Structure formats: C-alpha cells, structure tokens
Amino acid sequence: SSYELLRNYRNTKEIRDASSIFCKSGTPARSLTSGPKPIMVECDDYDDEKEYIASIARNNKDACIGVIVNNKNINNYYRELSEELDGEVTVQATKAMTDKKIMDYNEPGLQIVSFGTMKGLEFDIVIIPRCECIYDTGDDTINANRMYVALSRAKQRLFIVHFSDYCS
C-alpha cells in the first residue's frame, strides 16, 4: 500500500512552489513555513558565476550550501571555488559512484554534488549553476525529475544561475 504525504517539513512554500513546476508525479505536499522566493540570476561568464557563488558562501558561512552540477563538472567547480574562497569557507566535493571521499553533508560550507548524488540530501541553501545545461539525458521525464529533485533539496534558500549565451 502507499501513503500520501500531506506535509512538507523540508522546504519553504516558495521553494516547494518552484520545484513543483517540474514534479511529474502529482502535487508535492504542502509546506509548513514561508521564506524568501527563489532567485534566478544571469551571469555573463564562468568568472562572474564563480564570484556570485563565492559571495553567497561568504555571506552564509554557517549554512550548509549544496552546489548541484553535472558529474563531469564537479572537479572544475571544486577547483575554481576552492581557489576563489581560499580557505574562507570549506569546500567539499563528491561524485556519484565513488567512495574516495566521504563528505560530512551537515558541515557548513559548500558541498559540491552531482545530480547522481543529490537524491535524499538536503541543504540550507541550494545553488544550481548553469541551469540551462542540466538537460543532457535526452529524456524529458528524466530531465524534469532531475530538476525537481535538485530544486527540492533546498530548505531555506534557492539560487538558480544561468548564462545569457547558449550551453557550451
């Protein structure tokens, strides 16, 4: 038998509303709290994006911040953000299907994870860089589910970053 969840204890109403756009399996449970609306920001290039993500981390040093990227981009984001933050904020990264480093997902700082490792996790803040590039499976249902799960990992704040140019 199945049970319908009636209350959402993870996200704010605003994050739930944004993520529900991509939910293909019914309506997500009602949220119990309200908070800031998700923010979508356009960056000019990778440097602009890196500085934006670093500013969120600097302004939220006590928060656990999930940065959700494609598996192939994890190393680049880890390297670039570690350099930019230079020890001001902890930066951790892990890829799907690896056991090289066990991350403490409750530790404040940036937790860079892939779409393959995000399910079941939750973060105070979620940042989705280059959102226009996450649709790479060729299956619209899988892509929508991936976006729903990514957005719904956020408990309090959600930042979605896109570039004005096409995905390259």
Question: What would your notes on this structure say?
Answer:
By secondary structure, the chain is α/β, with parallel strands linked by helices. Helices cover 27% and strands 27% of the residues. The strands form 2 sheets. A 6-stranded parallel beta sheet has the order 3-8-7-4-6-5. A two-stranded parallel ribbon has the order 1-2. Helix 2 (46-59) packs across helix 3. The termini are far apart. The mean pLDDT is 83.
Name the beta content range. Answer: 25-35%
SSE string, helix = H, strand = E?
A: EHEEHEHEEEHE
Structural class, judged by helices and strands? Answer: alpha/beta
| Number of β-strand runs | 8
Strand order of the largest sheet: 3-8-7-4-6-5
Query: What spatial form do the alpha-carbon principal axes imply?
Result: globular
**Rg, Cα atoms, Å:** 15 Å
Question: What's the pLDDT, averaged over the residues?
Answer: 83
| N- and C-termini, Cα separation | 45 Å
Low confidence ranges: none
Q: Given the structure, what is the number of helices? A: 4
**Biggest sheet record:** 6 strands, parallel
**Helical residues, percent:** 25-40%
Key phrases:
168 residues, alpha/beta, 6-stranded parallel beta sheet, two-stranded parallel ribbon, 27% strand, globular
